[in-house]
Design goal:
Layout (H helix, E strand, L loop, with lengths): L5 E4 L2 E5 L12 E5 L2 E4 L5 H11 L25 E5 L15 E5 L26 H10 L7 H9 L26 E2 L3 E2 L26 E7 L30 E5 L18 E5 L7 E2 L3 E3 L3
Parallel strand pairs: 9-12
Antiparallel strand pairs: 1-4, 2-3, 4-13, 5-6, 7-8, 9-10, 10-11
Protein name: Formylglycine-generating enzyme family protein
GO molecular function, one term: formylglycine-generating oxidase activity
Pfam families: FGE-sulfatase
Length: 299
């Protein structure tokens, strides 16, 4: 198996979250994580292809919607597919995400933009269109797991406790772009990659990890809460928050994703920071959602 190199981290105490940005990042608080290891970069298309070849796994986006859970959806609309970002022709109301997202039948990890698209020249790009179950299945096959939110944020900070970004306090120090985020006017003009970039196209953080900011959002194992749960109020270090999901339909349960993506732009989504977090339903899959694995450290 051509798995990503694991980078062992010592763990420790750091300031998690932020009181200066979006409400769900608050309150900033002290958090402690045990030693662990995390993959140097997100799982790539070639690595995910090896997993599928070895197991015959079929991703969520490749299966039709459950007719019981989605009884109100017409049968013709329950075909396999996923959400695909589509630039607009010009400025639009940024409060309406439906202006630039399309449900595309036949879009999946092999066909990121729908039927007719493929992975040519994208072997080393992060795999996308992976739902929570897909990421978890890969991690189990690899003998690893998804990182917790606290582990992910600790790793993304690269030892810069409290810094605004993974590299310091300036978004583009000296005018240098240090992550694959939207460069231009969202959602119609992008002077950057215009999509995912090969892993490692930008410099690593202080722990030697790449793409912790931008490129693709990354799944964590933690259920999402509207605000941080202070330590002591729940078992927060390993994502054990089942009580917070009481009553939620399993496939619609929300999990935390971290890191932002190539679609993050100052005027729309300022979530290209370690403290930033977003919620995703477990069955969500899009052109800007991927993952990386973690592992326990023994001995």
């Amino acid at each position: 198996m051509a798995l990503t190199e694991l980078v062992p981290l010592p763990g420790g105490t750091f300031r998690m979250g932020s009181d200066a940005h979006y409400a769900e990042e608050a309150p900033q608080h002290e958090r402690q994580v045990a030693p662990f290891a995390i993959e140097r970069h997100p799982v790539t298309n070639s690595q995910f292809a090896e997993f599928v070849s070895a197991t015959g796994y079929v991703t969520t986006a490749e299966r039709p919607l459950d007719p019981v859970e989605f009884a109100d959806v017409p049968e013709s609309d329950r075909a396999p597919g996923s959400l695909v970002f589509t630039p607009t022709d010009g400025p639009v109301d940024l409060r309406d995400w439906r202006q630039w997202w399309r449900w595309v039948p036949g879009a999946d990890w092999r066909h990121p933009f729908g039927p007719g698209s493929g992975l040519e020249d994208r072997a080393d790009h992060p795999v996308v269109h992976v739902a929570f179950a897909d990421a978890t299945a890969y991690a189990e096959w690899a003998g690893r797991r998804l990182p917790t939110e606290a582990e992910w944020e600790y790793a993304a900070r690269g030892g810069l406790d409290g810094a605004e970004f993974a590299w310091g306090d300036e978004r583009t120090p000296g005018g240098v772009v240090l992550a694959n985020t939207w460069q231009g006017s969202f959602p119609y003009r992008n002077e950057g990659w215009g999509g995912t970039s090969p892993v490692g196209a930008y410099p690593p953080n202080g722990f030697g990890l790449v793409d912790v900011i931008g490129n693709v959002w990354e799944w964590t194992s933690d259920p999402f809460t509207p605000r941080h749960v202070p330590p002591g109020a729940a078992s927060v270090d390993r994502g054990e928050r089942a009580d917070l999901l009481a009553g939620a339909a399993p496939s619609r349960a929300l999990h935390v994703t971290k890191g932002g993506s190539h679609l993050c732009a100052p005027e729309y989504c300022r979530r290209y920071r370690p403290a930033a977090r977003s919620s995703q339903a477990e069955d969500s899959s899009t052109t800007h959602l991927g993952f990386r694995c973690a592992a326990d450290v023994t001995g």
